Amino acid sequence: MEVSEVKIDIQRLIGNKNYCENIFKHFISINVINKIEPELFGRHLNKALHNLEFANFILQEHEHSIKEKLKGKSFYDWCVTIFYYSIYHASLALISRLGYESKNHLATITTLILFYYHKDNILEKKEIEFIIEKMHLEKEDIDTIIDSKKLREEACYGADKSFELLQAKNMQKQTAEFINKVRGVLEE
User: Fold this and answer.
1) Burial grade of 80 (CB within 10 A; 0-12, 13-18, 19 or more)
2) b/e per residue 93-106 (b: at least 16 CB within 10 A)
3) Whether this model's pTM surpasses 0.85
4) Which of 4, 64, 90, 108 would staple 102 via disulfide (CB 3.0–4.6 Å)?
5) pLDDT digits (tens, 9 = 90+) for 120-151
6) Backbone φ and ψ of 119, nearest 5°
7) pLDDT digits (tens, 9 = 90+) for 7-58
């Protein structure tokens, strides 16, 4: 049974540990989640930090070289995209630390919820919801400002959506807070 054949209720993953554990086992059984060496988490954390630094640089350059050399242009859409990948790599770092790798976003989310929310109580519900909102298209009862995966897809594939500085700044703040939390967890 493939991932697409199973309808997964995101809110139920949060609310029901047994359900979350069963979905996790399903992902293992179909090789969407696999065991790895836990020491590999550093690669994902470094990639998350790299992406965060680059997105911050591009955002800041809107006040300097982009403003001067590319008058009237903005690249806030690319900032949102890069922030999104920073969040995703930080999430991969967390599950890598546990000794797992994931081949899709939903499996990553499931692993994070099971181990960092249900079992170890390291991440709070609001942080899990932040991750879900940033990495998954469903937006059930989550009221964070931006759905970055959707924004990232619009940024990469859409031609009619203009992105505002405020959206990029909000994403910057949320991403930095999440990366700092992940760093703290991984450094323990």
Assistant:
1) buried
2) bbbbbbebbbeebb
3) no
4) 108
5) 888 888 888 888 877 653 333 233 323 455 55
6) -85, -50
7) 888 889 999 999 999 999 999 999 999 999 888 899 999 999 999 999 999 9
Using DSSP, state whether 35 is helix, strand or coil: strand
- Indicate the pLDDT class of residue 153, thresholds 50, 70 and 90: low
CA distances from residue 11 to 16, 125, 140 in whole angstroms, order as listed: 9, 11, 7
The token pair that represents 52 in the structure block: 């965060």
Using the structure block, give the residue that is written with the tokens 């770092």.
93
Q: In sequence order, which ranges of the chain are alpha helices (DSSP H)? A: 10-15, 17-29, 41-61, 65-69, 76-97, 105-112, 125-135, 148-157, 165-187
Place of tokens 């998954």: 136
CATH number at residue 183: 1.20.120.330
Rounded CA separation 31/52 (Å): 30
The two three-digit tokens of residue 55, written as one number: 């997105």
Domain count, the chain: 1
Per-residue pLDDT reduced to its tens digit, 166-187:
888 888 999 999 999 999 898 8
pLDDT of residue 136: 55
